[in-house]
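Task: complex structure prediction.
Instruction: return structure tokens for all chains below.
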Amino acid sequence: MSEILKTIGVKRSFPVAGGLFWALKGIDITVPESALTILKGRSGSGKTTLLNIIGALDTPTEGQVFFDGTDIAKAGESEREKLRRKKIGYIFQSVALIPVMSAYENVEYALRLANFKGNYKERVMECLRLVGLSKRASHMPEELSGGEQQRVAIARAIAHHPKIIYADEPTGALDSSTSLQVIAIFKELIEKEGITIVMTTHDPKLMDYGDLVYEIGDGEIVSIRRNQEGEQANE
Amino acid sequence: MLRFIFQKLLNKKWLVLCILVGNILLVGIACCNPMYTRAALQKMLTKNMNQSLQETNQYPCMEIITAKLSETRLEKYGSTIFPDYLSVTEIVEKLYGMKPLQTVTLYDTSNSQDARFETDRGTEGSNSLELKLAALSDLPEHVEMISGSMYSSTVDEEGIIDCVVNETVYLSHDMVIGEIIQMKSYDDVSGNPVRLRVCGVFRAKDTSSAYWVKDPLSYEEEFFLDKSLYEQLFMKDNTIAGNVTATWYTLFDYTNIEIEQVEQMLAVHGKLNADAVGDGQLYVPVSTYESIFEDFQAQSGKISRTMWILQVPILVLLAVFIFMVSNQVITIEAGEIAMLKSRGVSRRQLIGTYFFQSLFLALIALVLGIPLGYLLCHVFGSANAFLEFVGRAAMPVKLTGSALLFALLAAFAGILIMTLPVLKYARFSIVEQKANKRKSKRPMWQRMFLDFALLAISIYAYYNFNSQTDLLLQKVANGEALDPLLFLSASLFILSCAICFLRVIPILSYLIFRIGRKVFRPSLYASFLQITRDSRKQSFITVFLVLTIALGIFNANIARTVNENEEIRLRYDNGADVVLQEKWQSNEASYELGYVDELVYQEPDFSKYEQLQSEHAKELVSMARVLTDTIEVSVGRGSFPNTSLMAIHTKDFGNTAWMPEGYTQQHWFNDLNALAQRPDGAIISSNLAQNAGLEVGGTFTIYRWDAKQQSNTNQRLTVVAIVDLWPGYEDKREVKNEDGTTALEERFLVVTNMENLLRDFDVRPYQIWMHVEGSTDFLYDWIEENSVRLTSMTDTSADIQNMKNDPYFQVTNGMLTITFIVVIVICAIGFLIYWITSIRSRELIFGIYRAMGMSMNELIMMLINEHFFGSVLPILFGAGVGVLASKLFVPLIEIAYSPTIQTLEIRTFSSESDMIRIAVVVCLMLLFCISAISMLLSKIKINQALKLGED
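Output:
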């Protein structure tokens, strides 16, 4: 399995009253391609900060982040914007659909932003089918339930064929059966689209589904666990 | 709870500050109305009385009661007010309930009495004289003796009464101090013949003193004796010798009369009038203030009504503003409200909280608003024209009960407006609120087409008013103010245009979206979707922007139109900057008496004017002699008496007289040239041409009658031009009908060459018209230095200044200016609040866009596009509506400010500088807003914005 992303000595500090708070204290991780990598940890552990950095939303104070062969920690803002448009997809904990756009348009919008070459309609419907929402394409976000909205968000995240998807607590606002549904979709995406997914969670029940699980505590990697092809999860 | 409220207020300090500003303005403007109206009226009242004093030389605030004591006895015939003539002044004082400035009692023998000097004067006739025995209260205190001594208060042992006279009487009879005069047939109440001794000659200490209700030198026959002696001798024990007229003057200090006293004083006078009739006329009460006060009452109603009418739109706009911001605050707090509701806080408690919060703000507004109102009054007082202020004497502004009442009402209205939005939210718990969010129906008024209905009503009203301009004119002629319905329909027109526009924006943006969706960049795509699908949120700010801009332009145009038309009218009617007429020497006296048959005038030396012009070449640009007269025009169809004649020297006249540009089809110089080319030519007014059937080239004869309607001279003239307008010419004049009403009558004009006219007609006093650049002060100095005697002088610059000082114009200019400024201020504030809160509430969405790879510039582009539809379009539309409303309604509103005779057509004026002002303010507002938004946006860290979403 090849690596799509690798961090070396990533540190991130935030100014606080009376000095600096080090949210990340030197993280070295590698993310394998076409697999589900889970960043596990309690809230405040630094997992979201790490996700933001590897997702090109934030820059590290120190260290390097190699994504697809380049160090994105040193990339300029416009380069990172381009990266986000073309190669990265995001899924957020809270429902993060654009309220004035329908499910279809939300997904399509990602294609527009990425300047997708190909048939928009086909691709949008394909993605919506993947998350099981092809019938609700014309619904507005406010007309969908929380789980459905999250699935639209997933469809949007994968639409433009990103190399990697970052999901920050994607199941945080969902009940456990819906959460499992979301994980199942992730698995299916990895299988069918060959996508790489990095997600954070604090839910211990989901640990077993990850191919690679980093446990983060207090800004440092506490443990690393590799599951064999995530077989348990498929059953 | 109080702490809770304060906490809440502090949290939203900017928004709360805006609400507070709105409330303070609301209170300030509401309470300045009665204060200002009162101050303006007070000023007007004092001014009117002052003017009356100058014009009539009579004290303007005086009750004069005259009674012939010998014929009608007050006590006998049952005056209910005056039981006794000796206490009249005290009773008048008590009735008025005011301390008089001065009371004066004058007794005199009603008719002149024959008398003779006891010492023989030698020549025939000079022994006898006519005199009136008189007494003036407190005379010794107000005079100084220039000869002899003051009278004593008793009769001497020989029965001779001491009396004093003024210089006029003394000199006219060649008297000697101590001379005895015997009345021929006038006895005192005891039946003794009256003998007088002239013991002194007096002169008034101070003729300008209020005591001298009559000029001290106007007593040409009066011999004054002591007042109590007079009463004792001639009016004792209900017996009165001969005819005695008593006049009681009660003077009130007119500079201290307050407008509240006007009605009461008129009532007192009315009561006296009613009592005086009694059984035959007991006495005659005359007040010098009655006509002044009655005029004042008519004018005051007009002024205060006008002020109200002009004020309503700004009050409504402020109310809308407060509502908008309060609504914004409550929208932000909606979640909190719903949470409180679900935790069991009752609806009443919730509303109570907001009510107290509003109450607190309203109290602050009251405390700050009243001084603001006071300040605004002074600002109004110095309004010279629209957006133009000058230093003037301070207004007599006073905080009155009604001002306080209006302030309270405004504050109360403020509380209601602020609490109103919470009612909507207080109904729902958090669950219902979320469910509610999903419903997005069209607003009720759109479903019911209320916007179109309102527009239709306002347009109907416009056509109605427009077809009844004559009626409007009639009303104005009757002294009525601006028709409130007219102003209301104009405001309604603007409002309904604004809400109709709400339908247009989504349709327009949808069309553009449909056309361009395939090619749009993602930012444009998203912003168009935002505008099309989320237009309801914007509707309020859209309406607000359209309203403010349209109203601003509309008001500016009203003000400009009213001022400009009046100024042009004044200049046109006067004809030139200065028009003066010198007093000519003539044989008028002998002519009147019939000693000579012909009235001959002696033309004064004109070279002194030429001298003046050479000395003041810079100021006195040119001048012209203009002979005006009344003539009779005779032509085949008949004759037209009372035609105005104007004889001129064409070149001088052309350089001097003033005509507004663009009111005539061709320049009036063409007519002058035509006249100059034909010595016997005449320019005639079009109404004369029509009535007399005259055309260019036609001939007619003019006749001039002399003052006795006897001889006449005539001259034959040829029409060279027909005009509608001519400097100083009004095409109608007011004539009084027999029943006292006024009607308009055509006024005809003939303009001819003076040189040619004077070949047949003798010269009569002509006017001198002057074209003056800058100040006319030099002219007044010159007149005084050279003691030039003028019969009339018109100074157009002074007239224009007078117009600007007129309370009606001042109120209008002040009110429109304040409205304009307030509109601009709240427009800017409202705009900023809307955008900043709108950006704040969408931070999460912006975070998502950013996370999806949208660049900052694209995000700003997106907002600018939103801005264009949400602000720029409404602003442009508002400007359009403002201009349209001005075109439609301003000419109608202007009617309320014009005189009855309108020779010049009414035009709508707008000032470029006003439009530039509005444009600059708007651009600054937009720029400021965009930069504020950009700053806000750049501060949003994507990860933090997204974090926000996690809460």
